[in-house]
Amino acid sequence: MKKKAIALVAAACSLAMALGGCGSSSSTSGSSNGGKVIVTAFGSEPQNPLVPGNTNETGGGRPVELLFARLVSFDNKGNAKNEVAQSIKPNSDSSEYTITLKKGWKFTDGTPVTAESFTKAWSYTANAKNAQKCASFFSTIKGYDDLQKDGLKGDEQLSGLKVVDDNTFTVTMNQPDATFPVKVGYEGFSPLPESFYKDPKAFGEKPVGNGPYKFSSWDHNKQIVLVKNPDYKGNVKVNNDGVTFKIYTSTDSAYADVQSGNLDVMDSVPATATKTFQSDPNVEAYNKAGSVSQTFTIPSDLEHFQTNTEEGVLRRQAISMAINRKTIVDKVLGGVGTPAKEFTSPMTPGYSDSLKGESNLEYNPKKAKELWAKADAISKYDGTFTFSYNADGGAKPIYDAIVNQVKNNLGIKAATNPVPTFQEFRTDVSNRSIKGAFRTGWQPDYPSPENYLYQLYDSAAADNQGSNDGDYKNAAFDKLMDQAYAATSTEAANKIYQQAQEILLNDLPAIPLYYGNAYGVAAKGMKNFTMNWQNQPVYSELSK
């Protein structure tokens, strides 16, 4: 799976935003576009050409998401619904899927979307010779390892994919995977037309998709123009005639353009406006709980804090209860966060704010002190508890507040340990050289609890084999992960993930702090401004 360690912890900072180019302040009124409603949106210059399997950052992700329709689409809350797929049927243990496509789908060049449009695209992306950034998403499909070897030509196919007919193909997995019907909604699983393989580089400059919008033009470092696709027949309701992504290098400039009506929508706000944008009379503001989870991790083998000992669990629970998350969100983040209630996010299907053990995330300084004293009765702790973070990501005020709360509420010695850069910080995490707590964060790749839980806390992801940076290992938790993979439906899997979370809420291998909110602004007069589970504006719904 793709691992997304979040470099920027402050909610005021944009995530994964490689800005490039110049801002634009052209008029966006409907009358200037021949009566058509064209939405102008904040954008950044894509890192790569617009090929779905090689796009994993927001500059390219915004337009790619609108240009390509996958087997399933997600509603604004992250619930999956069949899109190009008529059905995705698993066998008894979710180790094989039979996928049937709806008839009549076409790419914008007029060619049909067939089973091979998917199998060839997935195999191309998975093939190491092609060096696609989304390759690892296909790792649970049979034959993936064979496509990682040296000496490949680039056109070898995943052996687990078999075309039955133009509208049917089967997928054989390396292992049971009940989340597969959700994963296929990620943009890396998009189909590609035959024209792509003739010249992938040229295709990326003028992509041909099958989504709600079709490509019009790309003026590098200035704008990417998409227009409504009249032949699209999927789930997305399109309320406008097109979306033009304006390329900005400054969020302050973009925000000023929204205020003046020269930009219609922006999926963030600059740090200078974090505390004021919701009361700004010149914009339509949005600020609700989002999908990014911010935590700090305590190494599971840290002396006095081991997750497999009563003393260690007591101390973890005490530290968690000593932290006033609401104060941090309100006073430090300016309200663009939501106190955590569990290990996924409010935008994740299966989320619950009332799981057993949730009280361990509630501010309770009296009980925190009692638990700490109980742990001291087992084995006295006289050390200084440290919190490490990358100093280049805006985390300082957050961890200053945490240290003060822990010191005052537990009566212990605590201190911050800032590391100059994110790169150095992550190297220290990977080398397991941090002897205290360290900040962690996660941005999901698809709306499933699996993307948070298995990737961060399963034993298989420990010891630098994945993103389990605290090397947490719990056999009961691992067993539930296996059961969830083998579940016969996402609903059944989500119930198992909730059981697994109750183990995490007791052991606290990491301490959930808050969810980074989905927040942004639209120009006054824009209609239907909302943001989805990916913390992105729902561009298709926007109108004037």
From TrEMBL:
Q: Does the keyword Lipoprotein apply?
A: no
- In the UniProt record, the signal sequence range is 1-18
Q: Which residues form a coiled coil?
A: none
Instruction: Return the GO cellular component terms, semicolon-separated.
Output: ATP-binding cassette (ABC) transporter complex; periplasmic space
Among SUPFAM superfamilies, the record links this protein to: Periplasmic binding protein-like II (SSF53850)
Alphabetically sorted, this entry's keywords are: Signal
Could you tell me one molecular function GO term of this UniProt entry? peptide transmembrane transporter activity
Task: Give the UniProt record's GO annotations in the biological process aspect.
Answer: peptide transport
Tell me the superkingdom of the source: Bacteria
The UniProt entry, under InterPro entries, shows: Peptide/Ni-bd, SBP_5, SBP_5_dom
Q: Where is the Solute-binding protein family domain?
A: 81-462
Pfam hit, one = SBP_bac_5
The protein depicted here goes by the name ABC transporter substrate-binding protein
Query: Organism source for this protein?
Result: Bifidobacterium boum
